[in-house]
Amino acid sequence: MTFLFSLFRFLSWIISVLFQTFKFFFISNIPLPPPPFSLLRVPYVPLRRIIDFMDPDTLVSLSFCSQKSHSVIKTQRRARFDGRLCVSEYDSNLSFRTFRNRDCVLSVCDCSYFSSSERSDYVKMNGRYVPVKTHRSDGNLVSHWYNTTDGLKTITEYVTDLFNIDVSIVCVSKDAINMIEWAIKRQKTPLKSVTVCGVTSSEEELIYILRDCKTSSQIEIRSYAPPNFRFSEMFRKIDFLVIWHGQWVTIDNLLTMDGIDIILAYSNLSNNDLNVFLKHWLSGGCPRLKLFCAITGSVDILQVLDGLMHNAVLVEDSRYYTRQYPFGYSRTLSFGYDIQRADGVKATVCEQENEMVIAVWPETAQNYN
After folding, report:
1. What are phi and psi of 282, to 5 degrees?
2. DSSP sequence for 202-218
3. Where in the numbering of this chain does the F-box domain appear (predicted)?
4. Burial class of 6 by CB neighbour count within 10 A (0 to 12, 13 to 18, 19+)
5. Do 76 and 63 touch, CB atoms closer than 8 A?
6. Where are the domains of the chain?
7. Residue 224, phi then psi, degrees to nearest 5
8. Contact present, 367 and 347 (Cβ < 8 Å)
9. Is 183 left (phi over 0), alpha (psi -120 to 50) or beta?
10. Which residues contact 105 (CB under 8 A, 6 or more apart)?
């Protein structure tokens, strides 16, 4: 009976804490009325468990309530967050991203979109008072700045310090080099991923992304290249490379790539180019490759396999191709040809709606290294 009563009190306390958190996270300068069971008076072991169960955006909101709440969150949280922390200049926010979801933590917005009647709620962030409001659909805090780039940097410093973590992903659309270099220089661990969005990147930015940008695994270029742009240098080692507007990618570029996943959209590569690349892989080139996809104007699978039909086995059945690296991936492969490299590694080559796919089998750990 005593146990049930204690359990009931504990559950009631959790509900009370959550209610107080959502009710008071804006008014950091007003003393909070104590909940029925004070959060900061709970012994450290159960307190850590409670904090570990809270969502990142809730913890950020709670951290603004007082210096003590900030200190408790910073020192007591131990659980790993689900996903990689992304700072996005394109979306003007910080979020934790997984393969399927994006959980926003804190956002920035231009002050010109914040009416004077709303500027009554402020939080203290890195020594300055910042007007905030709650995002209507996501529920996270939106901070307002005259310079949104400065605001994005400030909220990044605040959140990474609060959670004792580094940024994993940077998404940029303007002033890409400076933003990426700022993120790289401010932390000890390397960035895992860089995404470039926007209308058109400069030649300088694209060369920097492809040759000099220091990330450990992933580059995604969603922007257009300038007219007549060409990349004449060797591609550096990039595990996961996605180029959405790949009209500028040539067969010479393709033959210098060393990646695990290579995805090209709106490519001008010809069937003959794809045939050359496939022969390159069969002879030992691009040895880490697990998945290659190129969306072109027209794919003729027989031209792609020209000169290789003696090594090709038709497979009419559909098969599931499943990946666990880097975030998880699956697709259905149908009506393809299996080909085998001299070392015994097999790949399926197939055409799916003007997309040429090379999917390497089997999935083994050494293929990721």
Report:
1. -65, -30
2. -HHHHHIIIII--EEEE
3. 36-84
4. exposed
5. no
6. 2-80, 230-369
7. -80, 155
8. no
9. alpha
10. 56, 57, 60, 85, 93, 94, 95, 96, 140, 159
Q: Which two tokens stand for residue 314?
A: 């038709």
Is residue 241 within 8 A of residue 253, CB to CB? The reply is no
* Alpha carbon distance 152, 78 (integer Å): 25
Amino acid at 137: S
Kindly report the pTM of this predicted structure. 0.81
pLDDT < 70 regions, the chain: 1-44, 113-120, 324-328, 363-369
Buried b / exposed e over 42-61, threshold 16 CB at 10 Å, is beeeebbebbeebebbbbbb
Residue with tokens 């962030």: 125
DSSP state letter for 297: S
Kindly report whether the peptide bond that precedes residue 326 is cis, defined as omega within 30 degrees of 0: yes
pLDDT at position 114, please? 62
Count of all residues that appear for the chain in the document: 369
Q: What angle do CA 86, 88, 91 make, to 5 degrees?
A: 130
CA atoms within 13 A on the CB side of 351: 15
